[in-house]
Amino acid sequence: MKLKGKPRKARLVGNLLLLASLLLLLLQGTFLNLSDAGMAAVAVLAFALLIAAALVFLLFWCCPCCGRGLPGTLGLEYCPRCGGAVTESKKGFFCENRECRFVLWKDSKFFTAKKKTLTKSVAAALLNKGRVKLTGCYSEKTGKIYDATVVLEDDGARANYKLVFDHG
User: What angle do CA 107, 80, 150 make, to 5 degrees?
Assistant: First the structure.
């Protein structure tokens, strides 16, 4: 998902929500002549605006130094090679940095041999943690079903996968 311009607009919306809630709280006691029920209603509205502003800031948070968002926020994941944003397309998950050429293919032979698909959640776990637990993998040799952890190994030229088994 491309977020160009969205964090800036979201910060503006968050700041406006924060400002509106603070104005409501300030005006409540000084300029508005309200009954106790009216003051309680205005306080609840101001509190709801504060919560909305906090949610906007959390969903669209960006580091002030590098401008990166939080991993996993709105589907935004980062390339393990260059740190660029990784976006989903019809055929796979690609780094937006064209020189990097990092890709996780959805029709990878590794996953199709195990009768699994590279879903968005599996790709996100591989990009964030470097590993993901898969259950119900199919063995071509034995025809049995097994559980294993898939580890992402990137040598700089291509992304490979390795299986790790928990025998405990």
Answer: 50
CA-wise closest residue to 16 among 65, 64, 52: 52
Sole residue written with tokens 């503006």: 12
**Is 61 exposed, middle or buried (CB count within 10 Å of its CB: 0-12, 13-18, 19+)?**
middle
pLDDT tens digits, 89-138: 889 998 888 888 889 998 888 888 889 888 888 888 888 888 899 888 88
Question: Which amino acid, residue 87?
Answer: T
> Cβ neighbours of residue 68 under 8 Å, at least 6 residues apart?
62, 78, 83
- Partners of residue 164 on adjacent β-strands: 149
Closest CA to 72 of 55, 54, 89, 59: 59
Q: Tokens at residue 101, please? A: 């050429």
Q: Which residues contact 109 (CB under 8 A, 6 or more apart)?
A: none
Look-up of token digits 């029920």: 37
If DSSP states are collapsed to H, E and C, what string results for 35-50? Answer: CHHHHHHHHHHHHHHH
**Identity (one letter) of the amino acid at 106?**
K
Q: For residue range 15-28, list pLDDT tens digits in order.
A: 888 888 888 877 77
Question: Is the Cβ–Cβ distance between 79 and 152 less than 8 Å?
Answer: no
